[in-house]
Design brief:
Elements (H helix, E strand, L loop, with lengths): L41 H8 L10 E7 L2 E8 L1 H14 L5 E13 L2 E6 L3 H10 L4 H8 L9 E6 L5 E10 L8 E8 L4 E9 L5 H11 L18 H37 L4 H49 L8 H86 L4 E2 L6 E2 L3 H29 L2
Parallel strand pairs: 3-8
Antiparallel strand pairs: 1-2, 1-3, 3-4, 5-6, 6-7, 7-8, 9-10
Helix pairs in contact: 1-4, 2-3, 5-6, 6-7, 6-8, 7-8
């Protein structure tokens, strides 16, 4: 800063067991000029940065433009990154553009999701301090839920209202859960130094395209010198990342559309053919899956629109600073590029609404087909039940006939059995009763009583055991 610059006021940091080790003013995030204790809890960031699990072996890619010449430094290890940061602090080269790519992953630990950077703890601390990274950006990484992150920008001014720095950061949501792209930009108009930090999933398929497009941005001669007659808009890398991720979202949306069309074609064939309930079950599962995917896309689209709105606000500040400093303009208009991206997003919103409507219509059709199938099954069951009732009635008539015949013949059968026993003797022309007839009575009556009591007891036990 020059003598006319206003020093950034740092809050008084004193030791406190409730807020962490705030005595270390040289530690991040407390040393950052952008640290605002009213906006976030620095202790949470400090705690995350002190967690060994959140950091791994350093592996970064650095893209830098100096004096109109671009160069890539890939797979920088811990020592190489420290050397690069030391070189930056010693030279503070004006007119330099740099983009640092670092992979991150979200992993489970103790039932929690934790962000892990491919940076060592010490190098991460040095990186954030060297470029005065806004702690609110680090908070978007620390938060275990990328969806909770909101875009933001911070600006600082010198005396007289002259712009000193612009910071912009956002999280570009991916269709795939836990594969977001965290982007931070810091621009200082006085020195024209621009720094991009891009933290991305190691499994992201968009980063390769983003790196390729970033290189091509300065390959055109008319755009190859920052601060020259024509320079690329310093927000253009953000716009490129927007475009790449929006294209991925559009491809995903087209995939949902193809899946929905396939289901609708199958439903049409199903209506014309035989009705199979298992097939209807498959339709229902697929339509529910499409609904979930469309909801994810809706969320991602909303987040992209928020990022775009915040980016436009920050870009207006850059345009104002460029105009007031008399600096050359960009050979192309970022506003036009952003307008095109905005139109693509609006088109996606329209397509998304259309697909949701078609999905609901298809779901209603499947629901009606299921009801129709169930009605047919119920009608068949009713017909068979009526047939069973008729047969049961016929069986009932037969049983009544058997019961009637039994009632007619049972008394005679009983009498015949009694007189057929050896208790009676008819040989002398008269009836002689045996002297042992009482044995029949003595055995029959107790056996009858035992049978009745046993049947009653069995019925009582069955009633007690019923649920």
């Amino acid at each position: 800063m020059s003598g006319n610059d206003v020093a950034v006021h740092q809050p008084s940091l004193t030791g406190n067991t409730m807020t962490g080790s705030l005595d270390h003013k040289d530690k991040y995030p407390y040393c950052s000029p952008s640290y605002d204790p009213t906006a976030l809890d620095g202790f949470l960031i400090e705690k995350w940065m002190n967690n060994d699990f959140c950091f791994t072996e350093t592996d970064c890619d650095v893209y830098e433009i100096e004096g109109g010449k671009a160069s890539w430094r890939n797979n920088r290890n811990d020592a190489q990154m420290r050397e690069y940061l030391q070189s930056y602090r010693e030279s503070l080269r004006p007119g330099t553009f740099r983009a640092i790519f670092c992979a991150l992953s979200y992993e489970k630990k103790d039932h929690n999701t934790v962000a892990r950077l491919k940076l060592s703890q010490s190098t991460a601390q040095e990186l954030l301090k060297t470029f005065n990274v806004c702690p609110e950006f680090v908070e978007t990484i620390r938060d275990s839920e990328p969806g909770n992150a909101t875009p933001g920008n911070r600006t600082s001014y010198l005396k007289g209202g002259k712009l000193e720095t612009i910071e912009f950061f956002c999280v570009h949501q991916s269709i795939v859960v836990f594969k977001p792209v965290h982007v931070y930009m810091r621009y200082e108009p006085a020195g024209s130094g621009t720094t991009y930090l891009i933290f991305h999933s190691s499994k992201s398929k968009n980063i390769r395209a983003i790196k390729r497009n970033l290189s091509q941005l300065w390959e055109i001669p008319a755009r190859n010198a920052l601060g020259g007659l024509g320079y690329p808009d310093l927000f253009m890398p953000h716009c490129m990342i927007f475009h790449e991720l929006i294209q991925s979202q559009r491809d995903f949306l087209l995939g949902c559309q193809d899946r929905l069309n396939a289901v609708l074609d199958d439903i049409e064939e199903h209506i014309g053919g035989t009705s199979q309930r298992e097939k209807l079950k498959e339709f229902t599962i697929e339509l529910n899956q499409i609904a979930q995917d469309l909801d994810v896309h809706t969320y991602s689209l909303d987040q992209t629109l928020k990022n775009m709105k915040t980016l436009s606000k920050s870009h207006q500040l850059l345009e104002t600073a460029s105009s007031s400093s008399g600096r050359g303009g960009s050979p192309f208009s970022l506003a036009e590029s952003m307008e095109r991206l905005r139109m693509l997003l609006e088109l996606d919103e329209s397509n998304l609404s259309y697909l949701k409507s078609r999905r609901e219509t298809a779901m209603s059709l499947v629901f009606n087909l299921v009801n129709q199938h169930d009605s047919q099954v119920n009608a068949t069951i009713a017909t068979e039940s009526a047939s069973i009732a008729r047969e049961a009635r016929s069986d009932s008539s037969s049983m009544k006939t058997i019961a009637a015949l039994t009632m007619v013949f049972l008394p005679g059968t009983y009498i015949a059995a009694i007189f057929g026993m050896n208790l009676f003797n008819y040989s002398a022309g008269t009836i002689h009763v045996s002297a042992h007839w009482w044995l029949y009575v003595a055995i029959t009556i107790p056996m009858t009583i035992l049978t009745i009591v046993g049947e009653k007891g069995q019925n009582a036990v069955q009633k007690m055991n019923r649920p």
